[in-house]
Specification:
Layout (H helix, E strand, L loop, with lengths): L1 H18 L6 H6 L1 H11 L3 E4 L4 E5 L6 H5 L4 E7 L3 E3 L4 E7 L2 E6 L4 E6 L11 E3 L6 E2 L4 E5 L1 H6 L6 E5 L7 E4 L4 E2 L4 E6 L1
Antiparallel strand pairs: 1-14, 2-3, 2-13, 3-11, 4-10, 5-6, 5-9, 6-7, 7-11, 8-10, 12-14
C-alpha cells in the first residue's frame, strides 16, 4: 500500500510539473447545468490518438518506469523509436514544452502527454531540439521535436517514448488499438467517451 501511495504521489507531482495546474473558475460551478451540458457534449465525441514516433509499440504496463507503468499519470502506451523525430499525436494547443516532454490539449478537451525517453529530464535538454512553443496550435503529424536517438542511448537512457491521455478519468476508456510497428499519424489509442 505504501508503494502504491508513493507512486500516486510521485505521479501527481510529475503530472503537475509537466502540464501545470489551472484552477477551475468559479463560474464553472456557478453555471450549473449549462457547464455540465457543454462538457458532456465534448466528452461524447470519440477521440483518436496517433503515434508520436515511428517504431515498436510497447504496452504501458511493460514500460520500465513505475510511474508510467502504473497508470498514475494516465492511460496510454509507449513506442520504442527508430528515428529521432517526435510528432503531434493529436490536433490542439501545445500547453507544455520541455525538451523531452510535450503536453497538448485538443479542442475537445483531451489532454495528451508525449514523453520522449525515460528519466530523460536528467539530460537537461541535451540531445533534444524542440520545434514548437507553448501556446502554438498543432495538427496531427506536426513535428514537435528532433532528438538525437543515438546520443540518448549512448548516454545510458532508454529512448522509449510514452503517449498518455492525462485526463483519462474523464473518459470511460482509453484503448490501445495498435501493436507491432507503427508510424506517425497511425492510430494507436482510441479514447472512448
Amino acid at each position: 500500500q505504501l508503494i502504491g501511495s508513493g507512486v500516486a504521489i510521485v505521479g501527481a507531482f510529475l503530472l503537475t510539473m509537466l502540464l501545470g495546474f489551472k484552477d477551475i473558475p468559479a463560474t464553472k460551478h456557478a453555471a450549473g447545468t449549462d457547464a455540465v451540458a457543454d462538457e458532456g457534449a465534448v466528452a461524447s465525441e470519440a477521440v483518436a490518438i496517433a503515434a508520436p514516433v515511428s517504431g515498436q509499440v510497447v504496452p504501458l504496463a511493460a514500460v520500465p518506469d513505475k510511474v508510467f507503468a502504473s497508470g498514475a499519470i494516465g492511460s496510454g502506451l509507449a513506442v520504442i523509436p527508430d528515428q529521432g523525430k517526435a510528432y503531434a499525436p493529436i490536433s490542439g494547443t501545445v500547453v507544455t514544452v520541455m525538451p523531452h516532454a510535450y503536453g497538448i490539449k485538443a479542442d475537445g478537451g483531451t489532454e495528451v502527454l508525449v514523453h520522449i525517453g525515460l528519466d530523460t529530464v536528467s539530460l537537461k535538454g541535451k540531445y533534444f531540439a524542440p520545434r514548437v512553443t507553448q501556446g502554438q496550435r498543432v495538427e496531427i503529424g506536426d513535428l514537435l521535436a528532433d532528438f538525437d536517438l543515438d546520443g540518448i542511448v549512448a548516454a545510458g537512457y532508454n529512448p522509449m517514448t510514452v503517449v498518455i491521455v492525462t485526463n483519462s478519468g474523464d473518459y470511460s476508456a482509453v484503448v490501445p488499438v495498435a501493436d507491432g510497428e507503427v508510424s506517425p499519424k497511425e492510430l494507436v489509442l482510441d479514447v472512448v467517451a
